[in-house]
Amino acid sequence: MTYQATMIKQSIDGKEVLYFDAFTNKWRVAGQDVLETYRKNIGQ
After folding, report:
1. Handedness of CA 2, 24, 18, 40 (dihedral sign)
2. CB count in 10 Å sphere of residue 21
3. Which Pfam families match (predicted)?
4. pLDDT score at 28
5. Which of 1, 26, 30, 34 is spaced 20 to 30 A from 11 at the CA atom?
6. Distance from C-alpha of 44 to C-alpha of 17, rounded to nearest angstrom
7. 1 domain-assigned
């Protein structure tokens, strides 16, 4: 089985574990913004 998604959000006990949104270049793991520096570097 394969699938394609542009956004995914996973929460456990009400806490965000994983968040990814391809259209807005947002990727958070355990609440930490992984792509913050990348977005600053490209002027977003």
Report:
1. positive
2. 15
3. Phage_tube (PF04985)
4. 95
5. 1
6. 24
7. no
Task: State how many domains the chain has.
Answer: 1
Backbone angles phi, psi at 40, to 5 degrees: -65, -40
- Domain-embedded: residue 2: no
Domain containing 33 equals 7-37
Does 31 fall in a domain? yes
Q: What is the pLDDT along the chain (44 residues), one digit of tens a residue?
A: 898 999 999 999 999 999 999 999 899 999 999 989 988 999 98
Q: How far apart are CA 35 and CA 28, in angstroms?
A: 8
Cβ pair 17, 10 in contact under 8 A: yes
Token pair recorded at residue 17: 């574990």
